[in-house]
Write a structure and sequence with these properties.
single chain; 81 residues; mainly alpha; two-stranded antiparallel sheet; 2 helices; 5% strand; transmembrane
């Protein structure tokens, strides 16, 4: 494995965490407790807190794939020039 691929793999985990955090902050900004003393919350679009967390993880993975694809395209373009 060359050093570029190693850097890409090592950079993927922090990038994935950053993506997840950003998406969770966007989706979770409107979370509210449904009951006064309860532990049940509802977020954007009627999602529960757990569903919002899972959805943000899936969206973060999709964003990571797009970002890695863009990095590959830019790298190929720079290498071709």
């Amino acid at each position: 494995m060359n050093h570029i691929a190693l850097l890409l793999v090592l950079g993927a985990v922090p990038l994935l965490l950053a993506n997840w955090f950003i998406v969770a902050m966007i989706l979770g900004r409107d979370c509210a407790s449904l009951y006064e003393g309860g532990n049940i919350t509802e977020c954007v679009g009627g999602l529960s807190e757990e569903e919002m967390t899972a959805a943000s993880g899936v969206i973060a993975l999709v964003l990571l794939v797009i970002q890695i694809g863009l990095i590959g395209l830019v790298r190929r373009h720079i290498r071709g020039s």
